[in-house]
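[09:14] KT: can someone run the structure on this one? pasting the chain below
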Amino acid sequence: MRLRHIRDGLVITMKPKVIILGSEMIAERNLAKSLALETTRINSEQTKIDLEIDAKRRIEEIRVDEVTAETRREREVKERIREMKIEAAQREADEAISPIKEGFAQITAKIFESASEMAERMKDAGFVSGSLAKRARQMCEWYQLMNFTGDTSLENVLEQLQTAAGREAKQRSPEEMRTALSDLLRMTSVHSKKLLDEDRLTALEL
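[09:31] RB: done, structure tokens below
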């Protein structure tokens, strides 16, 4: 609203409402700026707090991961040491057993060779010669002297052969000799195959 008073040629214009509205707008604007600044400050503080919390959490996670990794490495090292001890003990055992196995293999091969020759001579024989019976007895005695391994698996068949070869000349049975020699050949073949299979398994493990 505009009021005019004309007095002595003077004109006075008053705009009180406009002035009041302008002041309110400035005050509201200042308040809004103040609130915005406060909000920004609060958000900034909250962001700092969140970053600190996140940093602490990450640090703790890293520490936990490091402890876990170290524990796993220690466990792996201990397990490897245990495996190495087992492998070393196995090698020592193999080294100790190998000469025994080799010696037994040689004894078995020698018996098989002699038994094969005697079986060939007895193939169509109608009697057991004294030389063949003597050789059979000597082979059985040789085995008893050379059996340093303590193996008893061949004893039964060798006893059968020794019994057949130890009879008096007239009582020696060619069939009994052939049966004893056949059993001995079969048993020595089984032993040779067993030793060969064990060597193959050892080679595969290595």
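[09:33] KT: thanks! Residues 1-8, 200-206 have pLDDT under 50 and may be disordered.
[09:34] RB: yep, looked fine to me
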